[in-house]
Amino acid sequence: MKIALIGYGKMGRMIEQTAISRGHEIVSIIDVNNQDDFDKSAFSSADVAIEFTSPMAAYGNYLKAFKHHVKVVSGSTGWMKDHGDDVKRLCNEEGNTLFWASNFSIGVAIFSAVNRYLAKIMNNFPQYNVTMEETHHVHKLDAPSGTAISLAEEIIENLDRKNGWVKGLQVHADGTRTGSNETTADKLPIASIRRDEVPGIHTVSYDSEADSITITHDAHNRKGFALGAVLAAEYTATHTGLLTTSDLFKF
Ligand SMILES: NC(=O)C1=CN([C@@H]2O[C@H](COP(=O)(O)OP(=O)(O)OC[C@H]3O[C@@H](n4cnc5c(N)ncnc54)[C@H](OP(=O)(O)O)[C@@H]3O)[C@@H](O)[C@H]2O)C=CC1
Ligand SMILES: O=C(O)C1=N[C@H](C(=O)O)C[C@H](O)C1
């Protein structure tokens, strides 16, 4: 398969290695300094473009790829609030294809299934208070992480006593702390911690006076994200519309 890369940072480089190891060809690599390459035939020849850039750049990149009828797999986070509705329309009504996931690792797909099941069970146990914490490297631009927002949305969908999430304690890259994890009855607080080079840790906790139940996904490196993105590209080559990990990982 011919793959174009949009964004050649930590993820773009790891995806390049993973894609080549699975027998794919990288036909174009677009970063900040060679945006003209979107208009070159090498880019248009790609079966799929894999996009990992930033919250600010992602939506513009989708538009440029769609203009050239190139399908996109993207893991960029933090753009959904501003552009989610437009992207749904572009894919569901205008024939474009985007496979987007806040987290491409199989481990988080499994974690997400446990998260949904646990939230359902907890409807019967009001004595447990739910909170979430995510920890990432100090370079991360968005908070809460895209994964934390997806996990929070799953809890809200399945746990009747929560109807939204709020930002909780923020530990910033320089170590300063703002906000707090104080909980209200109907909102789920998400704490965000920025520390060292942590690839990504997500924890959901249910605490009662008697005990705590805690589930954690701890990414040891970025290999799981990269493999998931390449598997998603292989899937996207033969599917259309707005796609996500529940289309790819079925269990
Ligand atoms: N869904 C998932 O599984 C995962 C998602 N992510 C998300 O992916 C995104 C990227 O992560 P990561 O690779 O670690 O970040 P990096 O900062 O390491 O890489 C991003 C790259 O994109 C480049 N870039 C910025 N704007 C554009 C643009 N308009 N066109 C092309 N390239 C551009 C940056 O260039 P420059 O440095 O010059 O600005 C940089 O080289 C983040 O939003 C992150 O949250 C990360 C890991 C897993
Ligand atoms: O920025 C990152 O690094 C990551 N971003 C994604 C997110 O926002 O959830 C996925 C992963 O946790 C790494």
Structure, described:
This protein has 251 residues and is α/β, with parallel strands linked by helices. The protein folds into two domains: 129 residues, Rossmann fold (3-Layer(aba) Sandwich), CATH 3.40.50; 81 residues, 2-Layer Sandwich (Dihydrodipicolinate Reductase, domain 2). Helix content is 34%, strand content 25%. A six-stranded parallel β-sheet has the order 2-1-3-4-5-12, with helices on both faces. The chain has a six-stranded mixed β-sheet with strand order 8-7-9-6-10-11. Strand 3, helix 3 and strand 4 form a beta-alpha-beta unit. It is elongated. It starts with a strand and ends with a helix. The model has no long low-confidence stretch (mean pLDDT 97). Bound molecules: NADPH dihydro-nicotinamide-adenine-dinucleotide phosphate and the ligand O=C(O)C1=N[C@H](C(=O)O)C[C@H](O)C1. Ligand LZUJQKHR binds next to helix 6.
